[in-house]
């Protein structure tokens, strides 16, 4: 069902500093910051050619990333994103198998303007999973 790895998301307390580290220390290509108010985050993508790293900074105190950083002040891996060809079919199949889809339990539009959904980490070895339709 899942396809290739789309990105690994890392929550950071300071997006500008984290982007500079990837750009200046690691020599990576880093996108411009993009605020996503519907998701409560500001993001940049680090392009690795075959995949990306998404750096996430909270956008306001109600952001889910703010809660993550309260427990992990230095930041850390937040989720991994895998591609699927049909998000609706994937959602239905996962629910049939007993997996918990977070949020409203239905796909939403993600950072790339494509349908996404998140799966409960307790159902996937302690890792928050995002699925994105390609």
Structural commentary:
This protein has 134 residues and is α+β, with helices and mostly antiparallel strands. The chain has a single domain, classed as 2,3-Dihydroxybiphenyl 1,2-Dioxygenase, domain 1 (Roll). It has helices at residues 15-25, 64-71, 87-96, and strands at 5-11, 29-30, 34-36, 41-47, 52-58, 76-84, 108-109, 115-119, 129-133. Strands 1, 2, 3, 4, 5, 6, 7, 8 and 9 form a nine-stranded mixed beta sheet that branches. Strand 3 and strand 4 form a beta hairpin. The longest helix has 11 residues, at 15-25. The radius of gyration is 15 Å and the shape is globular.
Write out the CATH superfamily name.
2,3-Dihydroxybiphenyl 1,2-Dioxygenase, domain 1
Largest sheet: 9 strands, mixed
- Any idea how many domains? 1
Instruction: Count every beta strand, where a strand is a DSSP E run of 2 or more residues.
Output: 9
CATH class: Alpha Beta
- The radius of gyration computed from the alpha-carbon positions, rounded to a whole number of angstroms, is 15 Å
Tell me the structural class.
alpha+beta
Low confidence ranges: none
């Amino acid at each position: 069902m899942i396809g290739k790895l789309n990105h690994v998301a890392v929550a950071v307390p300071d997006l500008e500093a984290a982007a500079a580290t990837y750009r200046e220390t690691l020599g990576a290509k880093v996108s411009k910051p993009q605020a996503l108010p519907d998701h409560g985050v500001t993001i940049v993508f680090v392009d690795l050619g075959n995949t990306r790293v998404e750096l996430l900074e909270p956008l306001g105190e109600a952001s889910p990333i703010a809660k993550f950083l309260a427990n992990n002040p230095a930041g850390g891996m937040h989720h991994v994103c895998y591609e699927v060809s049909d998000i609706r079919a994937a959602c239905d199949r996962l629910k049939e198998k007993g997996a918990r889809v977070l949020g409203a339990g239905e796909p939403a539009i993600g950072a790339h303007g494509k349908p996404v959904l998140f799966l409960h980490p307790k159902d996937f070895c302690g890792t928050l999973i995002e699925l994105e339709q390609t």
